[in-house]
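Long-time lurker, finally posting.

We've been working with Serine/threonine-protein kinase RIO3 (Sapayoa aenigma) and I want a structural starting point before designing mutants. I don't trust myself to interpret raw outputs, so I'm hoping someone here can both generate the structure tokens and explain anything notable. Sequence follows.
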Amino acid sequence: MDSVGVAAAAPDAGPGPAWQSKCPWGAPNTASMSCSLADVMSEQLAKELQLEEENAAFPEVVAVAEGPFITGENIDTSSDLMLAQMLQMEFDREYDAQLRREEKKINGDSKVSISFENYRKVHPYDSDSSEDEVDWQDTRHDPYRADKPTTTPRRGFIGKGKDITTKHDEVVCGRKNTARMENFAPEFQVGDGIGMDLKLSNQVFNALKQHAYSEERRSARLHEKKEHSTAEKAVDPKTRLLLYKMVNAGMLETITGCISTGKESVVFHAYGGNATEDKVIPPECAIKVFKTTLNEFKNRDKYIKDDYRFKDRFSKLNPRKIIRMWAEKEMHNLTRMQNAGIPCPQVVILKKHILVMSFIGKDQVPAPKLKDVTLSSEDMKKAYYQTLNMMQQLYKECNLVHADLSEYNMLWHDGKVWLIDVSQSVEPTHPHGLEFLFRDCRNVSQFFQKGGVAEALNERELFNAVSGLNITADNEVDFQAEIEALEKMNEDHVQNHGKKLSTFSSDGDPPIYDE
Ligand code: ADP
Ligand code: MN
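Top reply, 14 upvotes:
Generated this for you. Predicted structure of Serine/threonine-protein kinase RIO3:
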């Protein structure tokens, strides 16, 4: 499932001011300087080259490409880039169509057909239907390596008796060499030599062949580089194009700016666009773009690998798909929470690694994190009881453990706490589910105790209150040991019965599926 539609209407936030809607990327707040398209493009090129260089020099540094929506200054430029990209896509498609026509012409009704597939510009990764795309780590047939042109037989001559022709026969070889140029890649301009009965010497032919090969290799390298740099940045051109399409389709009105850049995601603010028949778009949206940087996600393996909901799928997937799975996971978890009535962002749409949800905040200002807001002692107490309640609901009704719960992922909005950032949330029966829950409890307990809530349970009491378990250990170490023993018991149970069953769930409810 690639997208989901949820009827959503944020209650009070009004649509953006009229001036916002003129440019899909937001209103530039600096007057754009007039310059020619050529200038813009070359500047763009220079930037890209520099970025490429930087990426090569500091592969660990994850750079976020300056998107049009990140800063106001480069909106026009980036729109041009976008246009150029779309034009290029159009051009590539036409090129491929032409290639297909040529292919057809050459093959005709022949039983043996040749394919130009390797020379196509739009590769699966570029196309929209890239669900089955092959990642660069896959070792597939190298599309850039052309089959070698037929060479003179190894014995160095052909024919018999007086008709014998050696590879040194200038006329015959010259003609043959010219004809063999046809074996170069289609985009390699060989001119009209074939029609002109041009005779190429072996030396010239070999030089040309060498050149054609190195051109191909160069092109292959460029493609490779492009894909790798895509992996370095979250908001790569493809993501930008997807976002652009959302604006173009009227789903979003304006993408105004970046709210947050984390290690694993970038979050943007956007004004919602027009509602469709089956979907109401909230007036303000948050767009969470999961970074396509693989390094950062490696250490998250344990969350998803052991989550039985994703188990079967994990091993078969390429890294890009795994990242989409994080986005998908967040969507599913938010939907479960929504159904349980827990205050959290409402899912609008999921598109590949981009999750659009309702914005918690108002007029482009995101609601503050609990760690950044100063609450009255009354509100603090209120926030605590609400949090306790939500944790219980999350566990019992949603069958989930947040697994990254702290004052960093709780927002204060409309006089209550909102939970966000649930892509890593797991079911309690996850092999480390209870440890994650205990960590959540520790964070929550410490935060509210430090915040002066005298009633706040300590982490062990909170754990028991949320899980319904009755672990009696009165110190941290023993408590932790008991938790791990329970997890182990559950794992053994799974091993023996081949099915995940909660041996310790108080009510034994089956997992709640939201589809
Ligand atoms: P991560 O911490 O993994 O980078 P989060 O989901 O926590 O991703 O988002 C990062 C920040 O973006 C949050 O701390 C919050 O400030 C902001 N944010 C995320 N989602 C929303 C939302 N729906 N509404 C408002 N702000 C949001
Ligand atoms: Mn977060």
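Before you design anything, note these points.
The two ends are 10 Å apart (CA to CA).
The chain has a mean pLDDT of 72.
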